[in-house]
Design a protein that fits this description.
The chain has helices at about 10-15, 35-45, 50-60, 85-100, 120-135, 140, 170, 195-205, 225-235, 250, 260-265, 270-275, 290-295, 350-365, 380-385, 400-410, 420-430, 450-465, and strands spanning about 75-80, 110-115, 145-150, 150-155, 160-165, 175-180, 215-220, 240-245, 285, 310-315, 325-335, 335-345, 370-375, 390-395, 415, 430-435, 440-445. It has about 475 residues and is of the alpha/beta class.
């Protein structure tokens, strides 16, 4: 039987500084810039702090007054810090350390070092990439490898380092040596449903018989969700069972350039506080409750055909044809309720003029000769719609106002939504923010998200529920 790379179970700090183990990696050959992370790792594993400076760092970033970790360190650890702080590389390090120091099981059953990320692409490209690099570059670690696939490193002694997306069902039944959640604050399903709390419920049982650790490393977002709950319940508490460490990206990675930090702050101060300073965004909440949305869905109905005795309203969210979709929605009132009848969208790239021809044809099937719309390129839209026999009127309400008027309709079940996957996904992702002028703002979550289908549908529903005709919306009788 070949000799193990860490036969005497080195501590993680010893393994990190060992010139034939992780110390052989270029990133860790000079640990001066990793000093804050070294204290974090020591606290995680209950190791002695070297001096008063390390104790001060521990107190600053955990809010605890004394350093008294349980034997073996904490079973659950949360690090909340900004982007480019080095947290994903540390996640890979912890997974590798736990895997190579694991003792083989007498029954030869496999155990796992689980790396969980928002999606499979993120897990493989970033998180799994950092975990795999030491086994490619360090001879002593190469000797431990049995096989490697696109998302799994199998070690000879029965431990698998695996990358998984944040799907709770994917990890059930596994037995884990360690579970690492990278960017827990952003865990959502493909349907835009948060999976953060369900993931924690799913992974904790995988650690029940191994005594393994749950490590969460994430940038913060709004004051809600699993990450916020962990922070709120455990930060600044000496007796808390979960260690919560909170720090800015520059505090964890002093190599970040001043130009980068200044540019981030100037471009988006709110994002800077979260993504650089590691602070939760205040005044951010989900607009619509998931259960309230579902209660309004007409299951199985994707579109309603035009009816002769119904007066319809329409809203258009136009696009220049390069980035966003062009969306038109139609709705009508039925007693106290508003009914969403149809949504049509065109995905870029496209010619706006050509799409407007198709949109006008669609509107006329519902006997509509006018549509109200987003003020984007209003003059161009008005001209092109007019050429095709439809009047385009800019909306008197902005998108935030439309969403805020939709809110009571959904909460009181006075609206009926189509069973339209993209619409429901976008509605789930809407966020409400406290505005500087006393008016709340509603928008999609951020980069990679969109709300054009939700915007057009909300506009149509709000117009349809108005008790009196809204200027710019006319129908043939």
């Amino acid at each position: 039987m070949r000799e193990r790379v860490t036969p005497n179970r080195l501590t993680i700090i010893e393994a990190l500084t060992h010139p034939q183990i992780f110390g052989a990696l270029p990133a860790f050959q000079n640990l001066e810039s990793w000093s804050s992370w070294l204290v974090f790792l020591k606290a995680t594993y209950g190791l002695d702090l070297a001096d008063a400076r390390e104790l001060d760092l521990y107190r600053k970033h955990t809010g605890r007054s004394v350093y008294a970790p349980p034997s073996g360190g904490f079973a659950e650890v949360v690090c909340i810090t900004g982007r480019q702080s080095g947290k994903t590389r540390i996640a890979g390090l912890i997974a590798d350390y736990e895997a190579v120091t694991a003792q083989p099981k007498a029954d030869k059953t496999e155990t796992y070092a689980l790396l969980l990320a928002q999606d499979q692409r993120s897990a493989i490209r970033a998180l799994f990439g950092y975990a795999k690099a030491p086994f490619e570059m360090v001879p002593a670690l190469q000797a431990e490898v049995f096989s490697v696939t696109a998302d799994t490193i199998k070690l000879a002694h029965g431990v698998n380092i695996c990358a998984y997306p944040c799907r709770p069902a994917a990890v059930r039944g596994l037995r884990a040596r360690v579970v690492i959640c990278d960017e827990l604050g952003f865990f959502t399903s493909t349907e835009n449903i948060p999976t953060d709390k369900e993931m924690l419920r799913a992974v904790r049982p995988t650690l029940a018989t191994t005594g393994g650790k749950l490590i969460v490393l994430s940038s913060p977002y709004g004051q809600n969700g699993a990450l916020w709950d962990l922070h709120r319940n455990n930060f600044c508490r000496d007796d808390a069972p979960v260690l919560v460490w909170q720090a800015s990206a520059p505090e964890m990675n002093p190599t970040l350039s001043t130009n980068y930090l200044e540019r981030m702050e100037a471009d988006d101060p709110e994002s800077y506080r979260a993504e650089v300073l590691g602070q939760f965004r205040s005044g951010v909440s989900t607009l619509l409750d998931l259960e309230a949305i579902q209660a309004c869905v007409a299951t199985g109905i994707r579109e309603r055909a035009p009816q002769a005795d119904v007066s319809y309203r329409s809203f258009t969210d136009p696009s220049g044809g390069r980035h966003d979709r062009f969306v038109v929605a139609v709705a009508h009132a039925e007693g106290a309720r508003t009914i969403l009848d149809a949504v049509r969208s065109w995905t870029p790239p496209f010619s706006p003029a050509s799409v407007i021809v198709d949109a006008c044809t669609f509107l006329k099937t519902y006997r509509l000769t006018t549509t109200t719309g987003d003020r984007y390129s209003a003059e161009f839209c008005a001209e092109q719609f007019k050429i095709n026999g439809v009047t385009f009127e800019p909306s008197e309400r902005n998108r935030s106002e439309l969403y805020l008027e939709l809110l009571p309709l959904v909460n009181s079940e006075r609206t009926v939504l189509l069973d339209h996957p993209e619409l429901l996904r976008e509605l789930r992702g809407l966020e409400r923010r406290r505005g500087g002028n006393g008016k709340d703002k509603v928008d999609h979550r951020g980069a990679g998200s969109r709300d054009d289908v939700a915007n057009a549908s909300s506009g149509a529903l709000v117009l349809a529920q108005a008790p009196q005709p809204v200027p710019g919306v006319y129908v043939f009788d």
